[in-house]
Design a protein that fits this description.
single chain; 306 residues; alpha/beta; TIM Barrel; four-stranded parallel beta sheet; globular
Length: 306
């Protein structure tokens, strides 16, 4: 999955049509629903010329993390949460309606992290410092979005609420997590879970970032918590994963399905790296096939077709 901040160029559309791009995350700021819908439909038409539907995603959490200024929620997660689960669910349903009008399939929300430090870099992006409250509100957000047929994403597994530095900028190690909100999101059928780029030595003593950790992705998320949907990375062009050799293959081997980049050039390099590694590894090809089936199941739920 690569990023797009403006109307796509002819070369970008060619990559989509050639099947080099399986999904697009919309970054930057998009001025109107009409502009967004026009771009979305252009991208999806290019993908269908190549014979496969395209996933379109956006970070529309609310408050400061709101790529679409004309779409709900205007409030931050903390503000939404102060007004209760019914309000959160209603706002998420309104968000879904706006995203569907713009032909967007996935919202990389809700943040399901529990704020565990007053210095947490997430700030108002978290619903609460109480795991039970986060569990209730994150689940409400998931229900509201998915009732409107937009796929929700619980993030950042297994939790970034204790982190004081952003993993988009620094290598981060976390020792304190709360799984209850993720359990609750999974229980109500959340379609995606986004992995954290931090490391969790108490969950995986190897010190690998969660996105590359089979004990965390497969052992904890899939086997212990029972999640069988699509697992997506956080940005693989962030410092820690970008400095990791064979990062796409390592993420797939851990149990991840969808690889996310915020830079087109980084996405291209990642795609080429995965192709080379898959050529050499039958096991990796099998894992890619399994990931493809989970992504296909998501597309079927969304009604994506050509």
């Amino acid at each position: 999955m690569t990023a797009l901040a403006e109307a796509p160029s002819s070369s970008f559309l060619a990559h989509v049509q050639d099947g080099d791009v399986g999904g697009v995350i919309l970054v930057g700021r998009w001025a109107s629903s009409e502009q967004m819908a026009s771009v979305s439909l252009q991208l999806k038409a290019a993908a269908c010329k190549g014979g496969a539907p395209l996933l379109l995603a956006v970070d529309q959490e609310g408050g400061p993390m709101r790529r679409l200024p004309w779409a709900s929620p205007a409030e931050s997660a903390r503000s939404l949460g102060s007004r209760g689960a019914a309000h959160v669910q209603s706002e998420a349903h309104a968000t879904a309606a706006a995203l569907r009008r713009a032909a967007i399939d996935i919202d990389f929300a809700p943040v399901s992290d529990t704020e565990l430090s007053p210095q947490s870099f997430l700030g108002s992006r978290t619903f609460s410092s109480k795991p039970s409250v986060v569990a209730s509100l994150a689940s409400a957000f998931v229900r509201g979005l998915q009732a409107g047929r937009v796929a929700a994403t619980a993030k950042h597994f297994p939790g970034l609420g204790a982190a004081t530095a952003n993993t988009d900028d620094y290598a981060v190690s976390v020792r304190n997590v709360r799984l209850q909100p993720f359990r609750s999101a999974i229980a109500v059928g959340v379609r995606l879970v986004m992995m954290s780029n931090a490391s969790y030595p108490e969950l995986d003593p190897s010190g690998r970032p969660a996105v590359f950790s089979r004990p965390i992705v497969t052992g904890l998320l899939r086997e212990r918590l029972g999640f069988d949907g699509v697992v997506v990375t956080d940005a693989l062009d962030a410092p820690t994963p970008a400095a990791t050799s064979h990062a796409p293959a390592r993420a797939i081997a851990a149990g991840v399905d969808l690889l996310l980049y915020t830079s087109g050039s980084a996405a291209r390099r990642g795609y080429e790296s995965l192709l080379r590694d898959a050529w050499l590894s039958p096991q990796l090809r099998t894992q890619i096939e399994a990931a493809g089936k989970r992504i296909q199941a998501l597309q079927e739920w969304l009604g994506s077709r050509c």
